[in-house]
């Protein structure tokens, strides 16, 4: 890997991917927390007409002009969504869908128009659909770095306001904060993240970089600060990994590899994140089921002893199995290790019998009292 990074072209692409990971990771957190995942998709597709307009104005594939155009049309799409939701009965998801379709269709028309003009300068312009990291220049890194720095500075300055508006906009409004302006600023930040990723992954795949790092980070923490940091780290890791794999393998595009890398991080986070991952949920379910089985067996022993008026009344293993309709030996073994039951002999019978210990009696009584099931054993000695 270090040998690959020694190459200046690969190093440029890797640094660009790292900048993309940082910007999309940090800024995407606010879109995820505001439940506006489709917003990233809309703004990414809305950037295409801006790419074309930037090219038409500059007359060449100047990245600065293209990014400014993408930012302008992205902001226009966000404004259109805001107007549709504020002035009509359309829900946010419908407004986002309308803006996405309209602006992307306009971008495809403009792209077709440019390609039909026969201008040699437009060569590779369609690469902004899926990204073309290999065409990145060192001068492009300065533009991407400046946009990333501006976005991060905006987050740092308005951190408390963005945090409050994301979690409780009603309370933020009651404090006199300009919630609408804050929401517009957070939407503009998502547009900035899209602009940074145009050259690297393109408008089609950019939505994954907005949503995936934040989604993965959300599985590992409940703190917004930690989530933002983790999201930036995950985005950077995916970006550099995709860039290095693309450099080591011929014919593999960098953008899709970056998206695949962050998708793998999301999958691992959903599976293994402590407390929230699917594996932990399955383990918790298994433990709860096992505890419930043990509690049911303990309650059965208590009730049977209560019916005989003797806490030391032994209950035959087969009787317990028949009562529960399933083998109970494992549950009894767990209860025995906890000191709640013990095996006893019940002559003249030779089959295994079990009885409650004093600790088991107290535990069963507490269990049934909490559930309102202790009626017969209140006077049991």
UniProtKB/TrEMBL annotation:
Q: What is this protein called?
A: Metal ABC transporter permease
The keyword Transmembrane belongs to this UniProt entry's keyword annotation = yes
An individual GO BP term = response to zinc ion
The protein's location, in the record's own words, is: Cell membrane
Task: List where the protein spans the membrane.
Answer: 12-33, 42-60, 66-84, 96-114, 141-159, 171-194, 200-217, 224-245, 257-283
Q: Which UniProt keywords apply?
A: Cell membrane, Membrane, Transmembrane, Transmembrane helix, Transport
Q: Which family does it belong to?
A: Belongs to the ABC-3 integral membrane protein family.
Membrane topology term reads:
Multi-pass membrane protein
Gene Ontology cellular-component terms listed: ATP-binding cassette (ABC) transporter complex
Question: One Pfam family this chain carries?
Answer: ABC-3
Organism of origin = Paracoccus subflavus
């Amino acid at each position: 890997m270090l040998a690959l990074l020694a190459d200046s072209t690969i190093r440029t692409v890797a640094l660009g991917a790292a900048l993309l990971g940082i910007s999309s990771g940090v800024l995407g957190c606010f879109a995820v927390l505001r439940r506006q995942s489709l917003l990233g998709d809309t703004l990414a597709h809305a950037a295409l007409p801006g790419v074309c307009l930037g090219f038409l104005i500059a007359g060449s594939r100047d990245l600065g002009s293209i990014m400014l155009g993408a930012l302008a049309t992205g902001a226009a799409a966000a404004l259109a969504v805001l107007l549709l939701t504020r002035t009509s009965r359309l829900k946010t998801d419908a407004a986002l869908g309308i803006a996405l379709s309209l602006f992307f269709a306009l971008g495809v028309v403009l792209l077709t128009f440019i390609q039909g003009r026969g201008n040699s300068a437009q060569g590779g312009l369609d690469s902004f659909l899926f990204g073309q990291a290999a065409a990145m220049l060192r001068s492009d890194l300065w533009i991407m770095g400046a946009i990333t720095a501006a976005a991060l500075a905006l987050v740092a300055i308005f951190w408390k306001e963005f945090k409050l508006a994301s979690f409780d906009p009603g309370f933020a409004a009651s404090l006199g904060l300009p919630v609408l302006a804050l929401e517009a600023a957070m939407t503009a930040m998502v547009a900035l993240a899209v602009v940074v990723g145009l050259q690297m992954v393109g408008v089609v795949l950019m939505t994954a970089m907005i949503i995936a790092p934040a989604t993965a980070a959300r599985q590992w923490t409940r703190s917004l600060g930690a989530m933002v940091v983790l999201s930036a780290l995950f985005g950077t890791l995916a970006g550099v990994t995709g860039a290095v794999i693309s450099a080591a393998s011929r014919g593999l595009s960098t953008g899709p590899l970056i998206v695949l890398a962050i998708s793998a991080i999301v999958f691992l986070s959903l599976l293994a994140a402590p407390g929230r991952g699917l594996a932990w949920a399955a383990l918790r379910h298994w433990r709860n089921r096992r505890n419930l089985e043990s509690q049911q067996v303990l309650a059965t022993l208590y009730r049977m002893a209560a019916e005989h008026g003797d806490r030391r009344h032994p209950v035959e293993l087969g009787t317990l199995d028949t009562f529960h309709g399933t083998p109970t030996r494992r549950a009894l073994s767990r209860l025995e290790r906890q000191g709640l039951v013990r095996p006893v002999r019940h002559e003249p019978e030779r089959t295994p019998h079990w009885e409650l210990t004093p600790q088991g009696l107290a535990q069963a009584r507490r269990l049934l009292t909490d559930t309102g099931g202790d009626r017969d054993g209140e006077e049991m000695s």
